[in-house]
């Protein structure tokens, strides 16, 4: 038995003998569902040429700063990703994990850095599920006015991928009160100061 086969056998024995499972998943979990992992700036810029022209890294575009300084570009990036995540279907690995977890006396829990909502779509609803980086399917205010989040279900941004920006007609939609979900109910800022839900921005949210 080679080292790889031995490691797989040991892993399977651990899973078989466990009375509960903790599933920890990162970006690689979504690749087989057709979702990019954006490894390195070249991977990011290949998918989003507008970010390449602006020489913005993932860390820079994935921040409140981006929404405050160039909302059209930030929403272009997140709007396209949100559309991808809504369309993507979880691969069969999710079902296998759920099957293993459901068979355990104490079930399973999920801890993921992914923001794509694939675990929920795959049926992980009753299990404890922590999204340590938040979720693109919810919004929050970038101001420190509270911990409220809103569903993004009604938000359907139209994006020009060539420039990685929302279409011009959407600029007015992204102003209050045109789209009810894009206005903070606490401090009344507009969508240019709302962002996807990042758990690190308001950890209690």
TrEMBL record:
State its Enzyme Commission number(s).
2.3.1.286
Q: Which UniProt keywords apply?
A: NAD, Transferase
From what superkingdom does this record's organism come?
Answer: Bacteria
Enzyme superclass (EC): transferase
Q: Has the keyword Transferase been applied to this entry?
A: yes
The Deacetylase sirtuin-type domain sits at 1-205
PANTHER family registered for this protein in UniProt: NAD-DEPENDENT PROTEIN DEACYLASE (PTHR11085:SF4), NAD-DEPENDENT PROTEIN DEACYLASE SIRTUIN-5, MITOCHONDRIAL-RELATED (PTHR11085)
Name the record gives this protein: protein acetyllysine N-acetyltransferase
């Amino acid at each position: 038995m080679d080292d790889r086969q031995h490691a797989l056998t040991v892993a399977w024995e651990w899973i078989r003998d466990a009375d509960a499972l903790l599933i920890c998943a990162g970006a690689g979990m979504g690749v087989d569902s057709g979702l990019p992992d954006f490894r390195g700036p070249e991977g990011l810029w290949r998918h989003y040429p507008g970010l390449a022209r602006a020489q913005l890294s993932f860390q820079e575009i994935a921040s409140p700063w981006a929404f405050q300084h160039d909302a059209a570009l930030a929403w272009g990036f997140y709007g396209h990703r949100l559309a991808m995540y809504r369309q993507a279907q979880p691969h069969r690995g999710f079902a296998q994990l759920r099957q293993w977890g459901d068979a355990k006396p104490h079930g399973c829990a999920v801890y993921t850095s992914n923001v794509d909502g694939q675990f929920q779509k795959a049926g992980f609803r009753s299990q404890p599920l922590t999204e340590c980086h938040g979720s693109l399917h919810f919004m929050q205010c970038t101001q420190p006015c509270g911990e409220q989040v809103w569903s993004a279900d009604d938000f359907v941004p139209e994006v020009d991928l060539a420039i990685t920006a929302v279409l011009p007609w959407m600029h007015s939609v992204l102003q209050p009160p045109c789209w009810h979900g894009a206005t903070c109910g606490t401090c009344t800022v507009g969508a240019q100061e709302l962002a996807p839900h990042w758990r690190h921005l308001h950890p209690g949210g």
